[in-house]
Structures are given as C-alpha cells and as structure tokens.
Design a protein that fits this description.
By secondary structure, the protein is α/β, with parallel strands linked by helices. It folds into 2 domains: 207 residues, D-Maltodextrin-Binding Protein, domain 2 (3-Layer(aba) Sandwich); 145 residues, 3-Layer(aba) Sandwich (D-Maltodextrin-Binding Protein, domain 2), CATH 3.40.190.10. It contains 12 helices and 14 strands.
Length: 358
C-alpha cells in the first residue's frame, strides 16, 4: 500500500539555514518522539547541517519496506514536520518486497531511495550484487551516532531500527493465561488439532525463526517441528500471519505460534478474544535499513536513515507498531536467539517439510 505523508499531515515549510541546522541537531541528540516546533540555537558547524540543506533541495524520497504502515506513517509524519521533505512509503511483505525491488533495479526502473526490511538472505545477496548500499558506506557524518551498540550489525554495515518480537497468539476463550508460556508448551496433548501457522514459505523470516526456535528445543529442530505439525488443525496452514490471526479470532484455531503483537492487537481492537504471549526465550524480526545503490534522492535517503537510527525515529515506529526499539532494550525478552542466515535455503526446505509435510 502506497501512502504519501502529505495525505496525513499539513505542515508549514521549514525555512532558512537556521531551521536546517536546528533540525540536524535533533538527530545528533536523538530526537524526541514528539514533533518539535521550537528549535534551540546550535553551533553553525553542526556536521549534518549541509546534509539537511541538500536533502531539502531534493525535497522528497521514496521508501519501500516491510514494517507495518502505522509505525512508518507516524515516523514519516515527524520526519516531514522536522525537515519539510515529502516522503512516500510502499509496504510489501516478505518476498514480494524483495522481488519487486530487485526486478526494478534489474530493469533500471525508478525504485525506492531507501529500503527497510527484515534481515534475511536478501541482504547479503543484495550487498554482494551491489543493488543496495549499507549506511556505514554512505559516509553520513557521525555514523553510527549514539545508536545502541548491541543492535549494530557490522557484518552488513547497518543497524536494527526495529525489533519485532515473535510470540504466540492465543484465543482466550479456549486457552487460559499461563497455559502456554514457552514454545515447548505447543506440544501439550490438549492442543492437538487446535494450532494454526502462517505458511512458512510466505516469508524467509518464518522459516528462519521456526528453525532457530526448534533448534533450541529438546530433541532438536526436526523432532520439534514434526511435533508441532502433529498438533495442527486439519486446515491449519494459512497463507500469512493475518489470515492465521483471523482464524484464531473466530475460534477456528486456538493458537497461532510465530506471530507478532501488532496483528494480534489489531484483531483485539476489533473485538477478537485474543492475547499475545511472549516467551522469555524467543526470536525477533530484525528490521534493518539500506539505501538504494543509485538513489534518485541521495541526500534525503541519508537523512532519513540518520533519522530512523535516532531515538525518536526508531521509538516512534516501534511504539505505533506494537514492537520495540533498540533504545528500549530493557523491555526485550531475556533471550533473543539469532538465526543463521547462511543456511537459509536449507532451512526453508527442511522447515516446510517438517512443519507442513509438504
């Protein structure tokens, strides 16, 4: 879905060099989560001042991403208010995002200036082929600023700007609080025939996360995933997370593992009797950011990356998507397992066969 921030908010133009310099200071300081309309005086030699001015001359940028629209819309609203740069966001999930971006690059069509996506094999492949550029290679003054070091990814030259913790959605009419708290609880006999899962082939992160969680269970990956498969409802494999969540809301299934809080909470707001359980040991979507290797708006792309790595940009997106920011590390589960991306192809074949029998 493509949305223009100008459809969400009307702002006055930010004028003059003073506004550019002051706006730049917000990134260096880790801007607050609320739009700022009054700027304090900052040194005229602020390292991002020239970047802000150049980005404002370009005036716009386009972003492709997999994070949900509410969070990105909220962040873009602030970005436009602070910098008066028109931004358009197109959300595509999983492989749809990656294939569209790659095909547009291959055909030399105009495509996004910035891409935000969940970390998977597409990232190292695209860095190797040269269709994306890592923030570390953009020579943005001050990179990586005061970004939490734990969430910097030096192997890819970028950072996790959002953390989408994976958990288990339950229908509270059938599953009571405390009955499911860990991944191994999925194998309890009472849940046989009442579990539904998003198709693990619909996004690389599904297979990666399932493989990683399963590796840490008693008996190893194959035994655990085949155990979950034995628990599935007769039609318990759904096209994606949204229809699986809807099925849980209607009572068609009672439990949807490997889900995200935003899908669950959206259904709850519509009256579904659902709750989201976060195991203390789990996995998470690592939402990373890159620039197009040849963006139409190179300075605006750099400025937006800097903004999304600031406290304000990251926390605003996370808060509005029911996720967590790297700046909120204290709120994260005690253990977040990392999945080995280098074996992604093997994982996909194995996870699909063990979990769905296909």
């Amino acid at each position: 879905m493509q949305r223009s921030v100008s459809q969400l908010v009307r702002t006055a133009r930010v004028g003059g060099a003073f506004a550019a310099v002051a706006a730049a200071a917000l990134i260096i300081a880790g801007c607050s989560s609320a739009p700022t309309t009054t700027h304090s005086t900052v040194p005229s030699n602020d390292p991002l001042a020239s970047l802000v001015a150049a980005a404002q001359k370009e005036g716009s940028l386009t972003i492709y991403g997999s994070p949900d629209e509410p969070g990105v819309d909220a962040a873009l609203k602030q970005f436009q208010q602070q910098y008066d740069i028109h931004a358009t966001y197109t959300r595509l999930a999983g492989t749809s995002l990656e294939s569209r971006y790659a095909s547009e690059k291959q055909s030399h069509a105009t495509t996004a200036d910035v891409i935000m996506l969940n970390l998977d094999q597409f990232v190292p492949d695209s860095l190797k082929s040269g269709i994306i550029t890592s923030p570390a290679d953009l020579k943005i003054p001050g990179y990586p600023w005061h970004f939490p070091a734990k969430f910097l990814l030096p192997d890819y030259g970028t950072a996790e700007v959002g953390v989408g913790v994976r958990g288990i959605t339950i229908n509270t009419n059938y599953v009571k609080p405390g009955q499911i708290t860990t991944w191994s609880d999925l194998l309890k006999p009472k849940w046989k025939g009442h579990i539904g899962v998003p198709d693990p082939t619909s996004a690389a992160v599904y297979t990666g996360h399932w493989y990683t969680v399963a590796q840490h269970q008693k008996g190893g990956a194959q035994k655990f995933l085949e155990g979950v498969r034995a628990q599935l409802a007769r039609t318990g494999v759904y096209a994606a997370g949204a229809p699986a969540t809807s099925a849980a809301g209607s009572g068609e299934v009672w439990i949807v593992p490997m889900n995200i809080a935003s899908l669950t909470n959206s259904a709850v707001q519509e009256g579904a009797p659902l709750s989201f359980v976060t195991p203390k040991d789990t996995v998470a979507d690592q939402q990373v950011i890159f620039a197009n290797s040849a963006p139409d708006h190179p300075n605006a792309a750099k400025l937006f990356i800097a903004y999304m790595m600031s406290r304000g940009g990251s926390q605003t997106m996370a808060k509005n998507n029911d996720e967590l920011s790297p700046y909120d590390a204290s709120k994260l589960p005690s253990t977040l397992w990392s999945w080995p991306i280098s074996t992604a192809a093997e994982q996909q074949d194995n996870v699909n066969r063990w979990l769905t029998g296909r």
